[in-house]
Amino acid sequence: MAAAAAAKIAEVRETTRVERIGAHSHIRGLGLDESLEARHVSQGMVGQVAARRAVGIVLQMVRDGRIAGRAVLLAGQPGTGKTALATALAAALGHDTPFTSMAGSEIYSLEMSKTEALTQAIRKSIGVRIKEESEIIEGEVVEVQIERPATGVGAKVGKLILKTTDMETVYDLGGKMIDSILKEKVQSGDVITIDKATGKITRLGRSFARARDYDATGQQTRFVQCPEGELQKRKEVVHTVTLHEIDVINSRTHGFLALFSGDTGEIKPEVREQINGKVAEWREEGKAEIIPGVLFIDEVHMLDIECFSFLNRALENEMSPIVIMATNRGITKIRGTTYKSPHGIPLDLLDRTIIVPTQPYEEKELREILSIRCEEEDCMMSDNALTVLTRISKETSLRYGMQLIMTSMLIARKRKAHEVDVEDIKRAYQLFFDEGRSVQFLKEYQQEFMFNEMEDREEMEMETN
Amino acid sequence: MTDWLSQLKKAKKSCIVDGKLKKVHFDFGDGREMVEEYNLDTNVVTRRAWRCNKELKGEDKWDVEIGDPEPVYNSDDMPLIRENSNQPIVSRRVTRMNLEWRIRNLPYSLETYSVTADQDSGCLVVRTTNKKYFKKLAIPDLTRLHLLPQQENVTFSHKFNTLIITYKKPKALLELEKSLLEEVEKVQPKHQDMDCKPS
Question: What residue stretches are annotated with the AAA+ ATPase domain (chain A) (predicted)?
Fold first, then answer.
């Protein structure tokens, strides 16, 4: 009894798990109309009309899929929506087009070289759509039996009886399968298909034979015929894998030797060449289709001169994706050199990119964004408070303004109010410093901090070598 | 001379002799491999297995066409879903004159079953009147020769929970097997001394 209750609780927890709210979780797309003209407020995007239109055209280019190896640079001050634009592009592309997002610093690792990391990122952004035969089981559920051990621990045991109009079979279920059957709430009378390799369950509907089981059924209940013939069928399915996934599958050292091979995660160039050849062959035979995707490199000024020259070369390959880079730097040193260059990117690479600038937001747009964020974070805010918060964001930064939403909401909740008022914003503003006030504070009290005895050496500078 | 026979002749062959069994390995060069096991007393294939290496996923498992499937020792990883062990299971055998299927774990009496030769799909179709079992049995030996199954060659019987379906080999298949056997006899095993001493 207790075990059953515990299981019940676990189940409830599984279904009510909330999604966490990230900095860009309110973005659902680029917010463009059919003629690629940007709507002022749509799909979580506000303002930045010119940049969104430009990204919309890039989107069109990716969808056409004919142009390889173009680079786009999103340049603008901090907090002007560069990452938001990239997130929106990813959302607009849909899940079938590969979109790889990485930060410039991600490529520095002890496991693999910089160029290897970049190559992997590039190959992650190229998809191959392949037709493959897979085995599926299709039938009407006669019975589901799932038994939990009496002690409450240990593996669950499951049986599933399926039938068609011609036959009936009992299946044993593995642990993962039991979980997904519970999650899908499969019950007798449903007509389902199960992909044997991946275990994916698809509910086709309810069997006509069971149409009279309940007096009331939901409107969305679909009734289907019980399938005919054999339960197990072979069906041709289309799925998309990335080039990197194919690389990994083919480069893995087999068996126990893998333990000694000192796998660094690097993939041999021979393997890649072989796969490129194979994919080209399939393409000619019409077995596969190449889907070029998007590689997004945030904080691109963190790449060094070697990476930039590697990118120059990699972009010329016809198998390369559209590369979108974002930076918030002005004229600064190129990492790895003493030369200065716009955006910290060498001129020859800049020459190959199209640059999309982002502008700082207007006050009206800030207000719009803040109210979208309030909605996203489930926060009620009075008009006056929103005006104050907009002013704060204008004078400090949009990010700081967004931080104050949650904090002031918690303050408001403390006084048992369900709406955030100006007072709460003020309190949060006093409690949490923004960057400007923090700098001012440090300047005033510099003498009292640690290690102050040492004289200022040369001027502080970002270490780039 | 059929297409299939020429493929077999072209394939790279190697063999070993293990007691009364001769195992021949055919490599067709396009990723397909086949292994046949001949009983040297009767010159009948006791096992035949295929492996089609998928281009994407490296080496595949062996797919047993004739003979018992590879035994699975209690492996830890339970697959996502599999048939219960007392569900019907099909195995194939070849005798000198016949092709045979045995479907074990079928408890129903003989009148329940019907076996028909389906011309459209080139399969034998097993049906039960109680709607508990249905199976399309492919006949790769005939398909490779582009032959269709004939109803008059099919007989079946039921014994010890097992349905035994027998299909009389057509003349073309007998001739092919004869010439294949000649081909196989040409393949000489490499020397049988062990290279290393098993401890």
Answer: 68-360
Structural domain includes residue B99: yes
Question: Is position B44 within any domain?
Answer: yes
pTM over 0.80: no
* Chain-chain contact of A246 with B56 (C-beta, under 8 angstroms): yes
pLDDT by position in tens, chain A (length 465) = 444 554 444 444 444 445 677 888 888 888 888 888 888 888 888 888 888 989 888 888 888 877 777 889 999 988 888 888 888 888 888 778 888 989 989 888 887 888 889 999 999 999 988 887 788 899 999 999 988 877 777 778 889 999 999 999 999 988 888 888 888 888 888 999 998 877 888 888 888 888 777 766 666 678 889 998 899 888 887 878 888 888 877 776 554 444 455 455 678 888 888 888 888 888 888 888 888 888 999 999 999 999 999 998 888 887 888 899 999 998 999 998 999 999 999 999 998 899 999 988 988 999 999 999 998 888 889 999 999 999 999 988 889 998 999 999 999 999 888 899 999 999 999 999 988 899 999 888 888 888 866 555 555 555 554
Count of the separate structural domains present in chain B? 1
Contacts of A39 (CB under 8 A, 6+ apart): A31, A32, A33
The CA distance from A373 to A88, in Å, is 16
Q: Which residues of A touch B (CB under 8 A)?
A: 130, 132, 137, 159-160, 163-177, 194, 196, 198-199, 229-230, 241, 246, 249-250, 252, 254, 278, 282
Answer whether B81 sits within 8 Å of A169, measured CB to CB: no
3-state secondary structure B125-142: EEEECCCCCEEEEECHHH
Q: Given an 8 Å threshold on Cβ–Cβ distance, is B81 in contact with A160?
A: yes
E strands, A164-314, are 168-173, 190-195, 201-207, 223-224, 232-242, 288-292, 294-298
Residue B158 lies in a domain: yes
**What CATH number does residue B29 fall under?**
2.60.40.790
- Chain B residue with CA closest to A288: the answer is B56
Query: Which residues of chain A lie closer than 8 angstroms to B127, CB-CB?
Result: 166
What is the domain range of residue B45?
3-186
Distance from CA of B147 to the nearest CA of A (A): 23
Give this complex's ipTM: 0.82
